[in-house]
């Protein structure tokens, strides 16, 4: 009996968007209008690339960024939840699928000593160039019309499950914990026995309820959470059964 926990990162594990939090490093903690208005829907990664160039041009160093990023608060109850998962790792495999980047997630998890809780992190690869600028790339290429150009979370989840099956690992239940519009595609891939846990008041919850009103509900069960303690309560019930 093994469960797979799939977490989004921004507004799910942490209570902010890591990509917008980094703006605190910018001069006067804001971006020029021209840069801010340069975002085009579906091309967030390219936009963040321009933000990182701007920060680099303004002398923002890796240490400054790291200091700023590690002050992001975790979502209410999340520290307790991750501690609980850590204590029960024999029952839970745990992955992150996020539109953030490897550098930010790595810094934040390691600073709080939670990196060991997660078996794998799927997110946009980032690194500092020889000139000290942070660069970010697309996670993969895909053909899903519903998702941003750089990341289809359904594809990531499906490939992970296929790889696990080859290793002889299958899951009693998949529990998907997220908040955003880009979490809907993987949620629609979940089966009847699985659970989607959208964060209360966020886009994913609204999208799931719109589907139900349109009489094409998701196949899986849906449990809304507002604090990660709600998620922990559900997991405790699961492992009692």
Automatic annotation (TrEMBL):
It comes from the Eukaryota. The keyword Metal-binding applies. Coiled coil: none annotated. The active site is at 8 (nucleophile), 10 (proton donor). Substrate binds at residues 19, 99. Mg(2+) binds at residues 8, 10, 179. Its cofactor is Mg(2+). Keywords: Hydrolase, Magnesium, Metal-binding. It holds the Pfam family Put_Phosphatase. GO terms for molecular function: metal ion binding; phosphatase activity. Gene3D superfamilies: HAD superfamily/HAD-like (3.40.50.1000). PANTHER family: PHOSPHATASE, ORPHAN 1, 2 (PTHR20889), PYRIDOXAL PHOSPHATE PHOSPHATASE PHOSPHO2 (PTHR20889:SF1). Belongs to the HAD-like hydrolase superfamily. PHOSPHO family. This is PHOP2 phosphatase. It comes from Motacilla alba (White wagtail).
